[in-house]
Amino acid sequence: MNEVHINISVSCFSFYDKKSDKHIAFCPALNMSDYSSDEDDAMSGLDSIINDAVEHAVSKGTVIQWLLDLGWKVQTKPVLELDPPKESFLSEFKKWSKSKSKKQTLKEIQFA
User: How far is CA 15 from the centre of its chain?
Assistant: First the structure.
């Protein structure tokens, strides 16, 4: 069996929501989120959710279809690349998530 390796990078954000008194971690490109009273716990929870979803998609052989369903585009020149959906809503999200506590991380994911 031939192995295919796919590397993707996604941005994940966290912010404090005063109304709920929770830190919310969000990954727009994968449409996944988590929340907690602690910012690091929210980001750690999101990381676990993403890892579980990746493991599930790999085990089912549905990685490409999963990403396409989320709006990703396949680029095949010169090698297979997957581009996340355009984050046109990102500016609206940034306006909505204005708070004193913000964190952004880049999540590297490898599918094998």
Answer: 15
Domain limits, the chain: 6-111
Please write the tens of the pLDDT for every residue from 9-43: 888 999 999 999 999 999 999 999 999 999 999 99
As a residue count, the chain comes to 112
The answer to whether residues 25 and 43 touch, using CB atoms and an 8 Å cutoff, is yes
Q: How many CB atoms lie within 10 A of CB 34?
A: 22
* Pairwise CA distance, residues 44 & 5, whole Å: 25
Q: Which two tokens stand for residue 22?
A: 């929770």
* % of the chain residues with pLDDT over 70: 69
